[in-house]
Amino acid sequence: TWIDNMGSGIMLLKGPWDEATKTVTLKGRMTDPGTKGDVDIKETFKIIDDNTQEMEMFMMMPDGKEFKTMNIKYTRKK
Asked: Which of 71, 67, 76 is nearest to 34 (CA)?
């Protein structure tokens, strides 16, 4: 699930874990706060190593292409 201050909805994504790449690929739909229409969303969450993880979020554009809307790199503080 994802909630933020851009809209009042809750985004719910589901998807499988890939043990070989240490990545979960999640897909779902959400209401775009800008257009008020529903859009397809994809999110990947990858474990890079014991101290690093990365999340990327993509929105599907009307032409069918993915547009990266977010990239977060998590690094463990030592």
From this structure: 67
